[in-house]
């Protein structure tokens, strides 16, 4: 039975890597002939200063066909908020176009108001051409030195120009800009006739197809950004060294002397009056309160740690290249489902070691401990997104798919892991006997209470990774692209070391204060890192 969890973990790793190969293979590698159609999809629009707020492209009254054809999307793309539809522009391979009309449209007063509101919020559009992303603004605001928005001029761009680079029979790069002389005045609420135009220009390049994505990740590799990243690592390493020296001092000067004294002169040690952590040695391994919840939290945390590790492995092998639509979300859903057996095994095994009897209830609690709050948060956010018609709102079909994955994959693996944990027959072996009655805990100062201890436990790990967190948040809620996963992985390892060290130190101080209820305090100290780790991934 001891080998089965390791074998299961290895199997899960192979499955995750196989999924990664499938994601990589999904990338576009098309070759085109002159005049052959190249797929162009319109994705979404939204305010530039709030990238998480996006809407469907045709929510604005652009030129649209009678029936909008939607692209079939993977689960990760839908979770990412992508809603790809056929764009109204035709960009055939190596076919230049000059000022071709897209449509002539009469904008109603409502359409003008929609466009004006979008221009005022710096709306941009996003499209994909041969799986290459492109962006452009839909209009501009001319303030003319005036402070009042009512006195500003609002203009809509009606002529879009596509500049495309190719190498032999492959598309390498695409950029878009607008004709500043082709503007539509949206300042007043009145009907306006607009003729939308577009142009396409082709130019040959020597850039190989394999390097066409480097353009989107080059900003993360700029020298000054790399210097900041290396400064972050040095800062983290210094923190680790200080903690290591601090703990080494404690272990060498305090614990070692006690262990030597007890080993060589046990009788003399018994005659002496005990103090500090030695005084409560009969209460240290007393089982924690709410042991079912404790075991569930331990199992769920182990699963999240395994999930984070697998995500880092996929990132290091190059799966999450820039704008690989939905790859990260697909990996998160699939790997979380596959690692649910780990949570079931760890939680039930530890619960049985703590002499728990209702392991089925413990298993159900483990399955709901993370998914329950996540589901409630999703319901609230999805309701808000539906109310605002944002692309973050998940379609009913996608919700059904996620529920089926949880029902048919996550829950069965959780149960199998729980059964394996129950049958592992591992016993809790404390190094010393636990007394029958718990010893009274002396009054503790305020800074030794749970909340201040949690704050101190989180401060040092946060100080070790806060620089990387800036770049991560800038990519999650901004327009930056994070691609230096090797540095992020180093910082992640340092985060684990710092968290482990600070947890050991605070637990020692708690025991030295004769507070033997360390189980939940220890878990709360460890719980300060998963949020940062999941953001990093």
TrEMBL record:
<keyword id="KW-0732">Signal</keyword>
<feature type="transmembrane region" description="Helical">
    <location>
        <begin position="394"/>
        <end position="416"/>
    </location>
</feature>
<feature type="signal peptide">
    <location>
        <begin position="1"/>
        <end position="20"/>
    </location>
</feature>
<feature type="transmembrane region" description="Helical">
    <location>
        <begin position="296"/>
        <end position="321"/>
    </location>
</feature>
<feature type="transmembrane region" description="Helical">
    <location>
        <begin position="485"/>
        <end position="509"/>
    </location>
</feature>
<dbReference type="GO" id="GO:0010008">
    <property type="term" value="C:endosome membrane"/>
</dbReference>
<keyword id="KW-0967">Endosome</keyword>
<feature type="transmembrane region" description="Helical">
    <location>
        <begin position="454"/>
        <end position="473"/>
    </location>
</feature>
<comment type="similarity">
    <text>Belongs to the nonaspanin (TM9SF) (TC 9.A.2) family.</text>
</comment>
<feature type="transmembrane region" description="Helical">
    <location>
        <begin position="327"/>
        <end position="351"/>
    </location>
</feature>
<keyword id="KW-1133">Transmembrane helix</keyword>
<keyword id="KW-0472">Membrane</keyword>
<keyword id="KW-0812">Transmembrane</keyword>
<dbReference type="Pfam" id="PF02990">
    <property type="entry name" value="EMP70"/>
</dbReference>
<feature type="transmembrane region" description="Helical">
    <location>
        <begin position="228"/>
        <end position="251"/>
    </location>
</feature>
<dbReference type="GO" id="GO:0000139">
    <property type="term" value="C:Golgi membrane"/>
</dbReference>
<dbReference type="InterPro" id="IPR036259">
    <property type="entry name" value="MFS_trans_sf"/>
</dbReference>
<protein>
    <recommendedName>
        <fullName>Transmembrane 9 superfamily member</fullName>
    </recommendedName>
</protein>
<feature type="transmembrane region" description="Helical">
    <location>
        <begin position="363"/>
        <end position="388"/>
    </location>
</feature>
<dbReference type="InterPro" id="IPR004240">
    <property type="entry name" value="EMP70"/>
</dbReference>
């Amino acid at each position: 039975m001891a080998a089965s969890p390791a074998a299961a973990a290895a199997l899960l790793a192979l499955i995750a890597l196989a999924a990664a190969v499938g994601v990589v293979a999904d990338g576009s590698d098309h070759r085109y002939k002159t005049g052959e159609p190249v797929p162009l999809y319109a994705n979404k629009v939204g305010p530039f200063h709030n990238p998480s707020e996006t809407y469907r492209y045709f929510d604005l009254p652009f030129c649209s066909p009678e029936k909008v054809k939607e692209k079939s999307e993977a689960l990760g793309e839908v979770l990412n908020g992508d809603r790809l539809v056929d764009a109204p522009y035709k960009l055939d391979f190596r076919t230049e176009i000059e000022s071709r009309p897209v449509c002539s449209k009469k904008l109603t007063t409502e359409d003008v108001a929609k466009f004006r509101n979008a221009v005022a919020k710096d709306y941009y559009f996003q499209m994909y051409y041969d799986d290459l992303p492109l962006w452009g603004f839909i209009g501009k605001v001319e303030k003319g030195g005036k402070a009042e928005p009512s006195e500003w001029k609002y203009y809509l761009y009606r002529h879009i120009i596509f500049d495309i680079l190719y190498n032999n029979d492959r598309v390498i790069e695409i950029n878009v800009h607008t004709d500043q002389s082709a503007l539509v005045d949206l300042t007043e609420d009145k009907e306006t006739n607009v003729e939308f135009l577009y142009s396409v220009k082709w130019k040959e390049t020597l850039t190989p197809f394999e390097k066409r994505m480097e353009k989107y990740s080059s900003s993360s590799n700029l020298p000054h950004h790399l210097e900041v990243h290396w400064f972050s690592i040095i800062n983290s390493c210094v923190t680790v060294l200080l903690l290591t020296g601090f703990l080494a001092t404690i272990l060498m000067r305090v614990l070692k002397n006690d262990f030597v004294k007890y080993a060589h002169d046990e009788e003399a040690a018994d005659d002496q009056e005990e103090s500090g952590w030695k005084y409560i040695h009969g209460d240290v391994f007393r089982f924690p309160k709410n042991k079912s919840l404790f075991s569930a939290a331990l199992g769920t945390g182990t699963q999240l740690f395994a999930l984070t590790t697998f995500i880092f492995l996929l990132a290091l092998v190059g799966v999450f290249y820039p704008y690989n639509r939905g790859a990260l979300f697909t990996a998160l859903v699939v790997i979380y489902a596959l690692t649910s057996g780990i949570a079931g095994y760890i939680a039930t095994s530890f619960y049985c070691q703590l002499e728990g009897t209702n392991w089925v209830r413990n298993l159900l609690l483990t399955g709901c401990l993370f998914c329950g709050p996540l589901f409630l948060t999703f319901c609230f956010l999805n309701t808000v997104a539906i109310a605002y018609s944002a692309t973050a709102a998940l379609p009913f079909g996608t919700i059904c798919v996620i529920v089926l994955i949880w029902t048919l994959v996550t829950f069965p693996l959780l149960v199998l892991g729980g059964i394996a944990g129950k049958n592992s027959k591992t016993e809790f072996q404390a190094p010393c006997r636990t007394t029958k009655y718990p010893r009274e805990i002396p009054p503790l100062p305020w800074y030794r209470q749970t909340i201040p201890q949690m704050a101190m436990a989180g401060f040092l790990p946060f100080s070790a990774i806060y620089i990387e967190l800036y770049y991560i948040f800038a990519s999650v809620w901004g327009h930056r692209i994070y691609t230096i996963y090797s540095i992020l992985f180093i910082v992640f390892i340092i985060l684990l070391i710092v968290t482990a060290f600070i947890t050991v130190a605070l637990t020692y101080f708690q025991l030295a204060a004769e507070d033997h209820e360390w189980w939940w305090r220890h878990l709360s100290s460890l719980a300060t890192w998963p949020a940062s780790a999941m953001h990093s991934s």
